[in-house]
Design goal:
Elements (H helix, E strand, L loop, with lengths): L3 E10 L4 E11 L4 E5 L6 H9 L6 E6 L2 E2 L5 H4 L1 E4 L11 H11 L4 H14 L15 H13 L5 E5 L7 H18 L3 E5 L2 H7 L2 E6 L2 E6 L1 H6 L4 H6 L6 E9 L2 E6 L2 E6 L13 E6 L5 E3 L7 E11 L3 E8 L6 E7 L9 E5 L6 E4 L2 E2 L2
Parallel strand pairs: 3-8, 3-9, 6-7, 7-8
Antiparallel strand pairs: 1-2, 1-4, 4-5, 9-10, 11-12, 11-14, 12-13, 14-20, 15-19, 16-17, 16-19, 17-18, 20-21
Helix pairs in contact: 3-4, 3-5
Length: about 375
């Protein structure tokens, strides 16, 4: 069993009194692949280093299988680590770099060879086993670091941006192999990244952190459809969620106040408590869920003028200025087969099911 728990964990660096992590609580269950996602400087790596035993915990507790490990170092916690920096032994060839953690635990001969060659094949390192790491490209060195972390079966595997130096094509291939290894070996993996596509393709659940604070933890579907706040709604998704100022008209209707009057949008069958009627809110709609047409003969629509057309191969991203709301731009994603031109008038339809409402930062619908 390899269950990881963080309970009210803080990391405060005395020099400058920098608070890197604030009151962080979460659980990563046995066999789970948990991705920690957030912007640079948000506290992701500090969290991972505390889990690994490389950073002292200022307050709180970290538990492995119910036992507090605050006082234990990385070796005693039996964690495997792979970081953005390779930290390879440059006097040893690739084979011996991968074998090092196995030999350090007293493993010998055929068992070492089998494990090294298995992981090398999985990460396409077979042709490089006799070479020295310093003679190889950065992306290959990063794969060696990853292989060394995954070659044994640790209690927990901790990966910090392990694909950052690989080109895009290789990244796609290697992350699929990481997930395959995780499943095949029954690992418990915590993976730090700022790359949404990477996190979403790999994880069972996302933990989103910003300014050292937990913003939300949940499945990709939960985070996408029910973001806890505006930060999560904006951070997850590309293009990012659109935000439009509005006002709650009834418990099932919100309006956008324009120069030509109110435009009403129903979110029925959902209902808000009466206390929100009359409240100023932010309407959130994802670009991928907006329906675009050249006719405005439906309810829940608003017109706009196309400002930018970005063809992206399998899709086109439209940037549209809402005609009755000066300075308010909304993005929508349409099929690449649909043709629009700059200056054209289009109508956006917001289905009731896609509308999200935020009061200040907090999601209320």
């Amino acid at each position: 069993m390899s269950k990881v728990e963080a309970k009210n964990v803080w990391k405060i660096y005395p020099r400058g009194n920098v608070v890197a992590v604030q009151d962080l609580t979460f659980t990563c269950n046995h066999g789970e692949f948990l991705a920690i996602l957030g912007p640079s400087g948000g506290g992701k790596s500090s969290t991972l280093r505390m889990l690994a035993g490389l950073e002292e915990i200022s307050r709180g507790e970290i538990l492995f299988d119910g036992k507090v490990v605050n006082h234990l170092g990385p070796a005693e916690r039996n964690v495997a680590l792979a970081f953005e920096s390779y930290a390879l032994y440059y006097r040893l060839n690739v084979y011996e770099n991968i074998a090092f953690p196995l030999r350090a635990r007293g493993m010998k001969g055929k068992e070492v060879d089998e494990k090294v060659r298995f992981i090398a094949d999985m990460l396409e390192l077979g042709p490089y086993l006799k070479k020295l790491p310093g003679s190889l490209a950065g992306g290959i060195q990063q794969r060696i670091s990853l292989a060394r972390a995954l070659v044994r079966r640790p209690n927990v595997t901790l990966l910090d941006e392990p694909l950052s130096h690989m080109d895009q094509r290789v990244r796609h291939e290697i992350r699929a192999r990481i997930r395959h290894l995780h499943d095949e070996l029954g690992l418990t993996t915590i993976y730090v990244t700022h790359d949404q596509a990477e996190a979403i393709s790999l994880c069972d659940r996302l933990l989103i952190i910003n300014e050292g604070r937990l913003q939300q933890i949940g499945t990709v579907e939960e985070v996408w459809n029910r973001p806890a706040n505006k930060f999560v709604a904006y951070f997850i998704g590309e293009p990012t969620m659109n935000f439009i100022p509005g006002k709650v008209e009834t418990v099932q209707q919100v309006v956008i106040l324009t120069s030509s009057g109110k435009r009403a949008f129903s979110f029925e069958p959902h209902t808000l408590p009466e206390q929100y009627v009359g409240a100023e809110v932010t309407i959130g709609v994802r670009p991928q869920q907006i329906e675009v047409s050249r006719e405005g003969n439906r309810t829940n629509t608003i017109p706009g003028t196309v400002k930018i057309v970005e063809f992206q191969g399998d899709r086109t991203v439209l940037t549209v200025e809402l005609d009755d709301l000066a300075g308010s731009e909304v993005k929508a994603v349409v099929s690449a087969q649909e043709r629009y031109v700059e200056g054209e008038t289009v109508w956006f339809y917001f289905a009731p099911s896609i509308i999200r409402l935020f009061e200040e930062e907090r999601l209320i619908l």
